[in-house]
Fold this protein.
Amino acid sequence: MITYDVCIVGGGVVGCAIARELLRRPWDRPLRIVVFEQHDRVGAETSSRNSGVLHSGIHEHPCSLKGQLAREGSAMAVSYAVAKGIPLLRTGMVIAISWEDVRRGLWREFSMLRRLWVNAWRTNIRLSFVTPSGLHAWEPNLHACCGIIIPSVAVIDSLAFVQSLQTDSEATGAEFAFKNRVIGIDEDATDYIVTTDRQRVRAACVINAAGLHADDVAAFALDNKKYTISPLRGEYYELVTPVKQGLIRRLVYPALPPHATGKGIHFSPRPNGQLFIGPNEVPVEDKTDYLSHKTPPGLFVDALQKFLPTLDERDLRWAYSGIRPRLVASDGQKSDFIVSVDREAPPLINLIGIESPGLSASLALARYVAELPCIQKRFSQSGAWPPSRHA
């Protein structure tokens, strides 16, 4: 049985980022790390089935992990993309209120803008409030009465991002074991025995970054269902009519009430020039249910036609869907990221509910995990634990 210092479960953006971060650090000796991934490649689930937006954190509570790590991580991801040549679209984000909403008396959207403005002020996010003329200068074809602009927001090629993190990790010694689905985690004195449907390994530390399946993986190690993920599917349509593809060039989001669990159906341009709209929110029972009961395009047109009156169902073609590992708090509100040290010796770290802005936060989240006291104690020069037994 092979022994590793760290076993990471999940080869999504967070798992790959953690592997890379741990191997970049000056520990007392080189770490031996394995990443178990049930699919045949990295980023096969939530990490690549999203909008690719590097969020500023403005939609989150300023003191939440989501807000803090998105602010830090998005800046780190932009720098990383530039250094690695990963496709990046510096589009900026518009959060807009339509004339239609004003005529209907939906003043709560203005309270939303005020809340975002306060969040930005508290966290030093640069933004500007814009009138119709200001919006017209940014997006000439956008019909809106006002909004805010966050110029720093960018869109990254999310799959290329994850693949680059994998390449970096492998270059510094990480081993990726694909088509290995974890089916058991047992504690054994100072280590864990991690069992997949193909092999068993010993690990001095387990980091659960399994995304949609993180609740199930945690249950293997804890012998109880401490966490429950409620999967939420988001669907995307592509705008394919040639004369309309260039009408919107930037990220355009609607202003939503504070209790909204998502960020709303939006115009979603990509670095390769494609323009998508989405995602919606569809609760699903099956964490692999990407296709059943597709939402018809009319819902997407209804959501965004107020911003682009010429938008028609015939302009849209089904593109793809993604599933978010949503964790609902006891009060029914959206939950913060959970980074839980469920055992300190040997370290067992569960990352639960890493949904949007997880892509944005990934590099900062990896740093956060690497700096946890149990990790520092286990692998630093002053660590009290004996070195792992390598077979």
